[in-house]
Write a structure and sequence with these properties.
binds beta-D-galactopyranose; alpha/beta; 13 strands; about 325 residues; 2 domains; four-stranded parallel β-sheet; Rossmann fold; seven-stranded mixed β-sheet
Length: about 325
């Protein structure tokens, strides 16, 4: 009997500082820039998933979203404010992914765990503390799937792509933000996949359009003026820039000749363009799947519990798989 009482008191002692399910959990979410189309879809998924989890778990979850509007200084100040107000856990979409150390140290000092997502901190920063996680994707896998979409389509309809019939595919490339883990790696891996599939390619031009529709459109307008129908394919690191290229084409004198475009993210507008045959394909950057992992981690860490087994996790980094969405 004495042993049981002792055991019970020990157990209570070890969970004394954990949140009970009736307590409120306060989560702060910081977005690098809410104007980013994929990030705004992530926000929606996170919001829905927190609401769903609240019902399932029967605990109150207060979620406050903040837009850092492209400024790391603003984001750092927002972090200070959340910590001061006693938030239990933070979900952070870094502005400058190479500058996570300040935020991590703030979290560590106040013992507020952090779940980073979409913009990956460098590994030296990730090893600064064991209460930090990263949720994202494998950029090389994403690029490879873009390459596969191209190959599937090209093998079925070579004449629709190689319009000048020279056996070489002339392409232009819309790249994301310089230094972003999802930009250069997606590009490299997509082109590698196409070449390994036995197709010769020639890069006519490429430029960073910072994930933005407007910049993608601007670049494409310039290339249409310079190369016109010499362009056979547009490869884009994301859908927003691909949609910009699509707009530029439809407003140009080349509106009648169809130039194939491959995007990435699987945002609604791009999926519609794929369905309507205006885009060759896109790759699903699974916002819902990533949001589910972020929410699960936030819940566990906020309640001071161990996150347990999470699929695709290696050293506190979770890479949610992509999927192909093509017309091929
Ligand atoms: C990428 C995504 C882009 C953009 C970027 C922001 O993963 O494909 O569209 O949202 O993240 O960090």
């Amino acid at each position: 009997m004495l042993y049981i009482i002792l055991l019970m008191s020990l157990c209570c002692g070890c969970t004394a500082d954990k949140k009970s399910s009736t307590e409120e959990l306060r989560v702060g979410v910081l977005l690098y820039n809410q104007d980013d189309l994929f990030i705004s879809s992530m926000k929606q998924e996170l919001d829905e998933c927190f609401r769903k989890t609240e019902k399932q778990e029967g605990c109150r979850i207060t979620v406050s979203f903040f837009d850092s509007m492209g400024s790391q200084t603003t984001q750092n100040e927002q972090i200070d404010a959340f910590i001061k107000r006693g938030y239990d856990v933070l979900c952070v979409n870094l502005v400058d992914r190479t500058d996570a150390a300040t935020i991590i140290d703030k979290g560590k000092k106040a013992d507020v765990p952090i779940v980073f997502f979409n913009r990956e901190p460098v590994s030296a920063d990730l090893s600064r503390w064991d209460k930090i996680y990263y949720v994202g994707t494998d950029a090389a896998e994403g690029g490879k799937l873009q390459g596969e979409i191209f190959l599937d389509y090209y093998k079925k309809y070579p004449e629709k792509i190689d319009k000048n019939g020279d056996g070489v595919i002339q392409y232009v490339l819309l790249e994301g933000e310089p230094g972003h883990q999802d930009a250069a790696i997606r590009t490299e891996s997509c082109i590698k996949e196409i070449k390994e599939g036995g197709v010769e390619v020639e890069r006519l031009a490429g430029a960073n359009a910072n994930w933005k529709l407007t910049q993608g459109k601007e670049k494409m307008e310039g290339w249409l003026t310079e190369f016109g129908d010499e362009i056979e394919v547009v490869i884009s690191n994301n859908d927003a820039m691909a949609l910009g290229a699509l707009e530029a084409m439809s407003e140009s004198e080349w509106a009648d000749i169809h130039i194939e475009i491959i995007g990435m993210d699987g945002i609604e507008e791009a999926q519609a363009a794929v369905q309507e045959g205006r885009m060759m394909g896109t790759v699903l950057n699974d916002a819902e799947g990533q949001a589910e992992v972020v929410v699960r981690l936030a819940l566990k860490l906020g309640k001071e519990e161990e996150p347990g087994e999470i699929p695709n996790m290696k050293e506190r980094v979770i890479r949610v798989p992509h999927d192909k969405l093509g017309t091929g």
